Amino acid sequence: MKNALLFYGVYNRKGVSMDIFIQQVINGLSLGSIYALIALGYTMVYGIIKLINFAHGEIYMIGAYIGFFAITSMGLGFIPALIIAMIGCAILGMAIEKIAYKPLRKSTRIAVLITAIGVSLFLQYTTVFFLRPEPRIFPKILTDGRFNIFGLKAYITYQQLTIFIVTILLVVLLQYIVHFTKTGKAMRAVAFDKDAATLMGINTNNIISITFAIGSALAGAAGVMVGVYYSAINPLMGIMPGLKAFVAAVLGGIGIIPGAFTGGMIMGVIEAMVSGYGNSLYRDAVAFLILIIILIFKPTGLFGKSEREKV
Amino acid sequence: MKINKQLVFNLSLAFLLFFVIHFLMSNRIISAYYQLNIYLLFINIIMATSLNLVNGFLGQLHLGHAGFMAVGAYVSAAMTTKMDLPFLPAVITGSIAAGIVGLLIGYPIFRSGRLGGDYLAIATLGFGEIVRIIFVNTQYVGGASGLSGIPRYTNWPILFFLTVATVLLIRNFINSSHGRAVLSIREDEIAAETMGINLTKYKLMAFSIAAFFAGLAGTLYAHYFFIISPNTFNFLKSVDYLVMAVLGGLGSITGSIIAASGLTIISALLQDFGALRMVAYSMILVIIMIFRPSGLMGTKEFKLSFLEEKERR
Q1: What pLDDT is recorded for position B103?
Q2: Which of B238, B279, B283, B289 to substitute to test the interface with A, most A CBs within 10 Å?
Q3: Structural domains of chain B, count
Q4: Which domain holds residue B291?
Q5: What's the confidence (pLDDT) of residue A299?
Q6: Labelling B208: which of A127, A175, B131, B264 has CA 20 to 30 A away?
Q7: How far A66 CA sits from the closest chain B CA (Å)?
Q8: Is A289 exposed, middle or buried (0-12, 13-18, 19+ CB in 10 A)?
């Protein structure tokens, strides 16, 4: 896949020394932050309407493009571009939910999943059609530079530092929204029992819309940061990160917000290790191997509790 | 097999079609380009009907059907090209290999209960990608540039009879007691389990049968087109089959056949519009799911009313 090239980071050296190990961890954590942000959207949407939103990876791709155009044609800086991308993606996420998923609320699972695949392909190929399939070079918006850590030969670049800080801020903000606001309380209620929440006077449709908006905004932020980090974007860049982020959400326990964050970080580090010490061609295969292993040993994920299915 | 007028009629129609196309091909009335598309059409019929077994009759979303096709194609092509074995053992081994891979992938997923059903979509999607990555990295079968110089063993009678056999076998499977168990899982998993149906066993059965036939289609594909490359069997190929199964009707074999034929012809005509074709396909998926969630034919089979027997109730 074309976008495979995107994820060659700086980690293509081989060796076993401590410096390189630390460097892999840092690279893995910055990649993991991106996965974590995407995984949060998956997990929130799954938690609330039990849908694997396949179009989520494409929302991340569109976020990268919105950021790209905000920087190149509007001449904005990193933070304004990030915010515009987040708002744009939030609107896109809500629109997708209203147009494609809402009419199917009462349909079979497979019908909704097929719709999700359809929406995902639609976003990919309308982007290919209108914005050309060739990758675009993301402008260098952050100054180059790096810190030396612990006096080792391992470095953390400004881009990586920005990714960490933004990710942590967004995750803290998300935790605040979910646990300390009325909307967050309503979201948790809908996820727990949709019918009961409706009976308690919660406007379920609005809450589902808000969940899509928040999840999509996080994916949009991830898109802009990937553009900054790898400095190239293309219309099919969302497929693989989207799938891996889903596996990350499953790894942490789907529907559980801290789980998605941890899962994303673990995925990022594992992937960096595989490319650093093993064969980077098998980077993509590892994610699915992890999925199979989770399904065999702990289908509910690291933080999940098994529930008996009720009629 | 219950023999009724409809079946006899369909089979005689199929044989008529066989002889007409055979006549046209052997006398070179059909140009090579159309001939290629006719072969592709029949391979697509095998793929669409077998995919429908999982997506339509079992009701689970399977997104990696091209991956199983790749397994069948590569295993059989390696046998005939590298080991100089005859066609028949290659076809059998290729199909069985795909079926076994289906079992291996399906077992951990279906074992983990209802969640597994949701994860099947992701796991099969990932499986399709992994198969591609593995073949790209295997130099024995040509790596990224693909395996070429495969002998052309697939001829019209072999392709035609294997396609008819596939459709009949899948039809008979659906009408058998095992098939009924599969249908009951689609309708209501919990109720099916309560009635003593082993969910894992029947899901796995339907999934690996579908994988087996995808492998068969792959072997036929490899031995018609001389060359196979890992990128032939990418995710978009799986999406093509998904659109065929969905458009024809989730749970309708005749629907799959009609949709596979129609879409093969349409995509041959739309060959120059790559991106637009995918936009159209994706819109077809969304619009059908919103307005007619069970596909054009639904679960109905195409029947001619004058042949209909009085239903015994």
Answers
A1: 94
A2: B289
A3: 1
A4: 32-306
A5: 78
A6: B264
A7: 21
A8: middle
Q: What was the pLDDT predicted at A189?
A: 92
- Among chain B residues, the shortest Cα distance to A249 is held by B119
Q: Which residues 231-290 in chain B show a CB within 8 A of chain A? A: 234-235, 239, 242, 246, 250, 275-276, 278-279, 281-286, 289-290
Give B236 or B298, the one with higher predicted confidence: B236
Cα separation of A54 and A37, whole Å?
A: 15
Domain assignment present for residue B220? The answer is: yes
How far does CA A237 lie from the centroid of its chain?
Answer: 12
Residue B311 confidence class, pLDDT cut points 50, 70, 90: very low
Residue B11 falls inside a structural domain: no
How high is the mean pLDDT of chain B?
87
| Integer Cα distance of B46 and A261 in angstroms | 42
Q: What is the pLDDT of residue B3?
A: 67
**pLDDT tens-digit map of A182-226:** 999 999 999 988 899 999 999 999 999 999 999 999 999 999 999
Q: What is the C-alpha to C-alpha distance for residues B100 and B116, in angstroms, rounded to an integer?
A: 19
Summarize the confidence of residues B96-100 as an average pLDDT: 96
Distance CA A29, CA A273 (A): 11
pLDDT in the model for residue B99: 96
What the block records as the tokens of B186 is 């689609």
**Residue A190 contacts residue A208 (beta carbons within 8 Å):** yes
**94-133 of B, contacting A, C-beta below 8 A:** 105, 108-109, 111-119, 121-123, 125-127, 129-130, 133
Residue type, A60: Y
pLDDT at B1: 57
Q: Give the SS3 label for residue B53.
A: helix
**CB A61 within 8 Å of CB A122:** no
Q: Comparing A71-75, A142-146, B102-106, B224-228, which segment has the lowest mean pLDDT? A: A142-146
In a domain, B242, yes or no: yes
- Strand A232-233 vs strand A155-157: parallel, antiparallel, or unpaired? unpaired
CATH class of A16-297: mainly alpha
Task: Considering only residues A109 and B92, tell me which one the structure prediction assigns the higher pLDDT.
Answer: B92
Q: Which residue has the tokens 């260098």?
A: A140
Top pLDDT among A310 and B21 is at B21
Domain membership flag for residue B22: no
The interface residues of chain A toward chain B in range 223-282, judged by CB-CB distance below 8 A, are 239-240, 243, 246-247, 250, 254, 279, 281-282
CA–chain centroid gap for B28, Å, is: 29
Are the CB atoms for A106 and B238 separated by under 8 Å? no
CB-based burial, B264-276: b 16+ in 10 Å, e otherwise: beebeeeeeeebe
We report the CATH number of the domain holding residue B69 as: 1.10.3470
Taking residues B59-77, report their average pLDDT.
93
Residues B136-180: tens digit of each pLDDT: 888 888 888 888 888 888 888 899 999 999 999 999 999 999 999
Structure tokens at B39: 């072969």
